[in-house]
Amino acid sequence: MSTVVVTTKQYVEEREGAYRIVGKRVSLDSIVYAFLSGQSPESIAQSFPVLTLEDVYGAIAFYLANRATIDTYLAEGEQLFEQLRQQARANNSLLYQKLYSA
After folding, report:
1. Which of the pair, 75 or 96, is modelled with greater confidence?
2. Whose CB has fewer CB within 10 Å in the chain, the N or C terminal residue?
3. Domain ranges of the chain
4. Contacts of 30 (CB under 8 A, 6+ apart)
């Protein structure tokens, strides 16, 4: 009987407060939002040529295994985005008036 070595592989890492695909600049957010909107892993992989199908499945598996943590992380990111959007509007009110009046 031959011996087969099985290794585990990490697909997602946390760097500087953000989750990314290991060795890539693609955020986990991008994959999760595509997955939650109904895109297939194959479609997601086509949208991110730097990722392999294995990377996408690994990221989805990571999300599903850590769903509560990642959902909280995504919600915090959405709140921060909304705060920054409101701040930009307050700081540049004339610009936004021109944009919406056109």
Report:
1. 75
2. N
3. 12-76
4. 48
